Amino acid sequence: MQQLLISGGTGLIGRHLIEKLKNRFTITVISRDPSRAQRLLGKEIAAFTLEEISDVNNYDAIVNLAGEPIADKRWTENQKRLICESRWDITTRLVDLINSADSKPSVLISGSAVGIYGRQGDTPINEDFEEYHQEFSSKVCQTWEQIALKAHSSATRVCIARTGIVLDEDGGALAKMVMPFRLGLGGPISKGTQYMSWIHIEDMVKALIFMLENSKCSGPYNLTAPNPNTNAFFSIKLAKRLDRPCMFKMPKIVIKTIMGESSDLVLYGQKVLPERLMSAGFNFTYPTLEEALNSLDL
To answer: Is the pLDDT assigned to residue 232 strictly greater than 90?
Structure first.
């Protein structure tokens, strides 16, 4: 059985990915707390700290998803440092291990986010777009990707997963959006014209596995559904799914007061399209928002 090394295995995406792959790979997870990781993921999953990984010679593939959640806390200077270091440091270490390996893994899939593009209004964005709006989330992802791409060689291909808003009933952004709607207080944020580039958790995992198995895949991929929607449209569809009203608009000033600079993530957006993924032959199970929301146990 092939050997797979995963960082960020206890996160939302990592847990679902491991569930899909645990019967096909021998999986090792990098964790700050290996005993907790095994409790969450099962005893059949090996878990080590990053410091305990001395080489990657035995691994056929590496998936690097680790990172401090970017939207959970206000962006104090300390929180910004944590967001950056939690991504950059582990990626640097993995790249160094790959480059020094005698037997290199065939692929590194490394995380990123559609935030690399920065705020872009209603401009359709594919992977070739490089006119990034220079803001914090973009700079984090630009450096993160640059570090990961240093592992590219004739032996190792590098795929960059530029992830959108992942829709899942058990956590992530959607769980935070649902509560005000359930209370009858849901509605658009600010004008609601900002685009939300989303992806269903099943398609997210399916896309990662597609890149893992397709030897022709390399470089950046937008992991978003092919039909991004405005925040206003998203709010209407979510309210309908929950059979709740969509009446209350959240003013920009309130969001800024609550979230500070991190409010940029919800006040602005990008209309991101998964062009390279679809050109490679990937088919989405949930291409539209209505299909995605109806499949979830909300």
So the answer is: yes
Q: How many domains does the chain have?
A: 1
50 assigned to some structural domain: yes
Place of tokens 């401009």: 123
- For residue 125, give the amino acid letter: I
Q: Which residues touch 190 (CB under 8 Å, ≥6 apart)?
A: 231, 249, 250, 251, 252, 255, 267
Q: For residue 149, what is the domain's CATH number?
A: 3.40.50.720
Joined together, the tokens standing for residue 20 give: 């899909």
Q: What share of the chain in percent tops pLDDT 70?
A: 100
CB 150 within 8 A of CB 118: no
Taking the C-alpha atoms of residue 210 and residue 229, their distance in angstroms, rounded to an integer, is 25
**Structure-token pair, residue 107:** 């692929």
- Is 235 inside any structural domain? no
Instruction: Quote the pLDDT of residue 176.
Output: 87
- Give SS3 for 85: helix
Q: What are phi and psi of 268, to 5 degrees?
A: -130, 165
Chain segment 107-124, per-residue pLDDT in tens:
999 999 999 999 999 999
Q: Determine the Cα–Cα distance for residues 141 and 123; give it in Å rounded to an integer.
A: 20
Termini Cα distance of the chain: 37
Segments forming the whole domain that contains residue 136: 2-164+198-224+273-278
The phi, psi pair for 260, rounded to 5°, reads: 65, -140
Of the pLDDT bands very low, low, confident and very high (cuts 50, 70, 90), residue 237 is very high
Q: What is the largest CA-CA distance in the chain?
A: 60
Residue 74 within any structural domain of the chain: yes
In tens, the pLDDT along 254-282 reads 999 989 999 999 999 999 999 999 999 99
In a domain, 231, yes or no: no
